[in-house]
Structures
1.
Amino acid sequence: MPQPPKRDSTTIHMIDVSEKPQMDRMARASGEIVLKSTTIEKIKQGSVEKGNVIVASKLAGIAAGKKTADLLPLCHPLRLSKIEVQIAVKDDLVEVTAEVKATEKTGVEMEALVAISAALLNIWDMVKMYEKDADGQYPTTTIQNIHVIKKEKKLREAPLEA
Amino acid sequence: MPQPPKRDSTTIHMIDVSEKPQMDRMARASGEIVLKSTTIEKIKQGSVEKGNVIVASKLAGIAAGKKTADLLPLCHPLRLSKIEVQIAVKDDLVEVTAEVKATEKTGVEMEALVAISAALLNIWDMVKMYEKDADGQYPTTTIQNIHVIKKEKKLREAPLEA
Amino acid sequence: MPQPPKRDSTTIHMIDVSEKPQMDRMARASGEIVLKSTTIEKIKQGSVEKGNVIVASKLAGIAAGKKTADLLPLCHPLRLSKIEVQIAVKDDLVEVTAEVKATEKTGVEMEALVAISAALLNIWDMVKMYEKDADGQYPTTTIQNIHVIKKEKKLREAPLEA
Amino acid sequence: MPQPPKRDSTTIHMIDVSEKPQMDRMARASGEIVLKSTTIEKIKQGSVEKGNVIVASKLAGIAAGKKTADLLPLCHPLRLSKIEVQIAVKDDLVEVTAEVKATEKTGVEMEALVAISAALLNIWDMVKMYEKDADGQYPTTTIQNIHVIKKEKKLREAPLEA
Amino acid sequence: MPQPPKRDSTTIHMIDVSEKPQMDRMARASGEIVLKSTTIEKIKQGSVEKGNVIVASKLAGIAAGKKTADLLPLCHPLRLSKIEVQIAVKDDLVEVTAEVKATEKTGVEMEALVAISAALLNIWDMVKMYEKDADGQYPTTTIQNIHVIKKEKKLREAPLEA
Amino acid sequence: MPQPPKRDSTTIHMIDVSEKPQMDRMARASGEIVLKSTTIEKIKQGSVEKGNVIVASKLAGIAAGKKTADLLPLCHPLRLSKIEVQIAVKDDLVEVTAEVKATEKTGVEMEALVAISAALLNIWDMVKMYEKDADGQYPTTTIQNIHVIKKEKKLREAPLEA
């Protein structure tokens, strides 16, 4: 089987999307953070000292999703029409799901993945003090299973009417 | 066992670190992205169309680490003295490790975790086209095992000399 | 009268505007900063030590208006076609007015309000030294009367021609 | 009385703080947003459709406070050790108070004022739909009374110990 | 010949582009950084201690191009469909070229010029240690010849199809 | 003469400054933009339609200088104590000079160079309409001669007193 040509190690470029049509884009993704069961209890009871973990982490996710083109150098700046972040507190982990929509020339899965990542990291930041052991280490805390659930695109047949 | 007091659902606050001493802080963290073996091959051969995945993803990680206080609303702005991102291409996944240092009143593990997350997301963004199946979905791609390897702090005994 | 249903305290979401039509949007808003009459004199005479208060504050307003989606987590990123900031120095206060335009799916009043707020805060920042009393306090300085003057939207009947 | 010298209209400059000592700085400021009583009811009942107004607006305030040097061009970048935002829902208005601390060469009142302004603007953004009249205008909504409550500075006598 | 009217020194405004049609825009620009021949050698050999200068500087250029509206206060926020940065290592200088595309109401030459400037500054930052003389000064390093090569606009005759 | 070892093309790293002492840093740099003489006239007469070019470009420079660590991925975030931008309108060009100060572990020349670059680009942006020829091209406009005038560092012998 022929090998693909080796590219120069100095190559880096953003895809040119100028000739792609605008389409209705949607992406849904999710991820998890494994926490100590005592931390999970605190989140469920609303007794985390830093405050309302769920609202703060949803907001961190939404805000980060809008910064995707600033965080990932080859992403195009997009006008997102929706970022929804949902958080489910399970027995030994917290699951974050995000859905992003836009009418653009390129897909929005990176925006959904950035939203999830920021929400998960914000959960970690807010419960840090409960997750550290006596030596200041994190024996349990792990972010895992970040994946795209579904990605869709479709051409809009007629322009929207007022 | 007494339950912890339920906090008001409107609570949210940044920890006040004004009375904490400045210490030398270090945090090392890592995470992985699972990719198709054909994608791994392309990264190893340097034949990814978008270009040099390793350098671009290290840079995305370093740049994001410096934006931690912008991404995580309760994090304090810190002057980092070092962010190092390493990337190891394994058989069926790519492993990203980050080490962050600062002389500050608060730890730098969130900065290391943000750096890793952004580097992993940037790898995803650069190999998207190889990971999607015929239906435009991502059956394989997963970010996993993001954890803190080591966190250290120590008081500096004497000021640095020129 | 039936009470509205109590929403879960963990709810937070951005409005989904994907099905809304693009319309020509305009918003005009204004606000005031009350200053000591001696400070007002300095602004009028152009003798503020930090420099040209009017131009700097207009620019701070324009620049901030473009950052609305970064400052307000539930705002959609918009492509603004105009931000105009006007500043009128009155007898005991300075009045700032902003007009913002865009052809978008959602209104631009938050952009106008952010522009005004930043311009007013920048005026404060530039005349701080004249407003503080001997004890370093601000007995006079107050930002007030920030309101939307007018908000308009209309559907464009025909596409723009070259 | 001699008039102050007229400065050139091209003057603009940031104060040079290099020779100022680092001091413990604190500033407390507050402001208000006047809303319709039906909107106030919705906030009290937690039935605002966009979600938890209080937590979201506190977070918007904290996040914006950290961006002060980005919003106000002549402000110095500071390492803040605390931003606390409190929100009190009164009968016909919502009051926002912020307290900021830092050990820096310059005061932190602008950071407190930016935090308040962003929190107030975020409240507006979240209750927009209840404040607009049939014509899409805002007859009631007004941001007012933004002022500095207290500003303090003191030299730290001994370095902090671990 | 009549003199143009003198504008008030307090004037500053963003051009209102609301009535301009969207057109396909392209701008190509370039610039150079003069370096010591020993530094040029290191770049060619890939032995710069900070790493891969070419990829890092291309990325810095792409990322900065997307921040144009944040850096230049009177620029409109645009959705860029492409930023391509090329770098040619010549005998005593490095030449950077950028091409930017967008379908927008206003041209993209400032985006191309910002991309070039950031790429050139990043080259400087990465080879600083080789350019400084024994006294810590830069006798050779100069950025020069930043200019627009070509600017184009054309109205798209038919909407893009899927 | 032995050749320096070829580094791996995947290397990229930020210098670790944790063991460097804090010193008083200063850097002064300058650059020029060549403009048509009719444009220079307009700047001198204050008749540029977009407004006060000098103040706006100084501010753009100051604001950009504070964003250096965001624009150049390997730069450390610094607390600047001063950024001064001066602009001199000459016969056929405009000269921009910037001076930056900080007490930090690393030099501030990149901050001065970023400030100059942004100020020069902002001048370009504000006089674009006068520089373009009938074909929309820029036959004259060029940014040139960006260089560091002077760089200094010295250890502070005693801490600053109040």
Note: Chain A is about 30% helix and 30% strand.
2.
Amino acid sequence: MDRNAPIGVFDSGIGGLTVAREIIRQIPHEPMVYFGDTARLPYGSKSRDTVIRYALQIVRFLKTQNVKAIVIACNTASAYALEAVEKEADVPVIGVVRSGAHMAAQVTRSGRVGVIGTAGTIKSGIYRDTIQKFRPETEVFGKACPLFVPLVEEGLWHDSVTEEIASRYVSELKGKFIDTLVMGCTHYPLIRSTLRKVMGENVTLVNPAYETAIELKHMLEEKGLTCEKTPKEKYQFFVSDQAEEFTSFAKSILPEEVKETKKIDIEEF
Amino acid sequence: MDRNAPIGVFDSGIGGLTVAREIIRQIPHEPMVYFGDTARLPYGSKSRDTVIRYALQIVRFLKTQNVKAIVIACNTASAYALEAVEKEADVPVIGVVRSGAHMAAQVTRSGRVGVIGTAGTIKSGIYRDTIQKFRPETEVFGKACPLFVPLVEEGLWHDSVTEEIASRYVSELKGKFIDTLVMGCTHYPLIRSTLRKVMGENVTLVNPAYETAIELKHMLEEKGLTCEKTPKEKYQFFVSDQAEEFTSFAKSILPEEVKETKKIDIEEF
């Protein structure tokens, strides 16, 4: 395995850039190839079979980029396709769900944890199952929030409408007296301040993007895969559609300059 | 051409069911094959090339169903792919955009028309171009409303949040003193009462779904393609994903019973 090879990160679209951002912050010398499946997004409302099929096509594409590890930055794909991706890939795989679930199990004091995410992520029950693997007696309450992604993509990060919708979505969870809330979709950290406001100060917000970057860092160190010679082209971005729109969104999210995004036909893989 | 063959109707997903509903109301004896591309929806945020590629795959599928005419029930596909579909199909093709644009040009008194739709439909300028073909001096003002589809799909058809978002979206159009507003996305007739409320009584709302059904009826009559013997299985529904969810949404929209929806792999076509 080439320790100077890039990390492969993929998502259904732009949301995974919040994971890429944390990776850039935590391990800034590591090269990265990012793929966003913008021609087929969103994954959150699609079926398990379809999401698995899409994820495997992406893994086959990432293999052509000789990645040394794969990060599934999409919660839905991580929920449905982690095992399938591990089988297909011949490199270590990290999914955002496992990292986020691990942290939630560690920080909850009351053992009552809320999870918000897309319909697919919540329906899969993956956060509940994974949190309970780390800490069996935890009670986990899920709530699908399908409007958050379009609200974020419409730029309403700090807006009364987003706050109203957030209040409705979390009222059920507040009634369960949770002390920890997992932001189980990559878009949600962008409305963190609204979530903080509607949940109150006593609930710990878990950001799986951050936990994933930390886990990735440790994994690379343990396996002797940390980069020793950063290549010239440190970051590469690929999408299946809307390359220009992706570039401009990426510029607003990432601390490093995003020069260009290449469009590929993912159905060929 | 077999006059008893079905009409092929396609959309990016469930929105085109509002077009199917109008067809069922206007020509209830006609058989229909509906395809919803639920594995790749929405189209509204995708590029021209991608939408054309998807539309051509769907036409190739519809050909296998021996359809006698094709209705592009998706505004975005109609905007980007009408010509390409006409070339690929060997049967008459009707797109919602042309039907809606034709009616808008007829009903406006002031010659100032507003159009609301997805980002793709508005960016294409197709409604402006088509309305001006029918009535060159018309001024057409477009406004993309990306949150309407998710709000409709979340069931918030009559809700204060939808009204607040609608008010923001149309305020620009109201400032243009339009007297006609085209609901340029198949989901929008489902929030017609909210649009009526925020636009006021003096603006005529044009529903391209209705106009499309009327145009289809006339076209079948003119070409001698009206069905004379309705087959046993009058309506057939196909999707690329989420067949069960589609069936339950279709039941809430359509006046006729929807028994089952078949899932196909559209990428094979």
Note: Chain A has two domains: 7-95+210-268, 98-208.
